[in-house]
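I am still getting used to C-alpha cells and would like to learn alongside you. To get us started, please write out a protein record for me. Once you have written the record down, we can walk along the chain together.
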Amino acid sequence: MSHPTVRRRRLGYELRRLREAAGLKLEDVQSRTTLNVAKVSRIETARFGVKAADLEILLDLYDVDDPGKRTLLHTLAKDGARRGWWQTYRDIISPEYAELISLEADASGMRTYQTTLIPGLLQTSAYARATIGAINITSTRETVNALVEVRMARQAVLTRPNPLEMWAIIHESALRTRLPDKHAMREQLQKLLDLAELSHVSIQVLPLDSPPHPGLAGPFAAISFPEAGPDLDVVLLEQSTSALYVEDAPEVAIYGTVFDLLRAAALPFDASADLIATTKDKLK
C-alpha cells in the first residue's frame, strides 16, 4: 500500500472530526449506514480512500449542509485519480514537491516566512536558476532547467481568475544574496516590488537588526483552503533533501501564532518596499 498523501490524511482527519462533533462512535456509523467499522476506520486513518457514494453517506449522517464544504471534501476524495501538469515532471520532482504543487493548486491562501531565499512563487527565472543550481549540486544542467520550468509554472496560482492570497515575510538577508549577475538580483528585487502592488500579494521584510523572534526556528509555509476553516490548514517545513507536512490542528495553530508574531516584528508594507528598493538601487 502506498504512503497516504496529505490530501487523503486531511480528508480522514476532517471526517473523524465531523463524526466526533456529531457525537457518534464508529459503531454508531455502522448501525446507521451500510458502512462497517473497519471501513470507516481505514478511511479516517487514511489507509484507504473513500468512494463518492460512501462520502455522501457520511456527510449526510454528519449533517454537513454547507455546499462548499461538501465540494471540498469530494475534491480531496478524488486524490487518487488526480493528475496535474506537474505529472510531466514526475521523474525529477520528489513526491513531497508534487504534493506541494497539488496543494497550491487547490489552496486559497498561503502565509510564508523565508530566511535565506525569496519564496518560490515570487522568484524570477534567473534567480530560480541560480539558486536551484546552487542547492541541487548533483543535478545536471538539463535537470536544473526543468526544475526552473516547474517553479515558473507554479506561479500561475497568482494569476488565475481566483488567485492565491499570499502573505510573505522575507528576512532581509534573503534580499542581500549575491548572484553572479547583479542584474539578475536587481530584476528579482524589482519583481518583489511589482508583485507587492497586487491586492492579493502582501510582502513584509524582517530587518537584520530585529531582536530574537520565533522565526529563528526556520522557514515555513502555511497553506489554507477555501470553505475549509483552519482545521484543514497544513504547514510545510522544507529542507534541502526532505519536506515535512505538519497537519495536526494544534501544531498548525502554533505556526499561525508564530506568523502573527513575525508579522508584528516585520517592517510595515511601505517601509518594506522602501528597503527592497534601496537594496536594489545599491546593486549597480
In short: The chain has a mean pLDDT of 89. The longest strand covers residues 165-171. Residues 6-81 form a domain with the 434 Repressor (Amino-terminal Domain) fold (CATH 1.10.260.40). The CA atoms of residues 4 and 85 lie 21 Å apart.
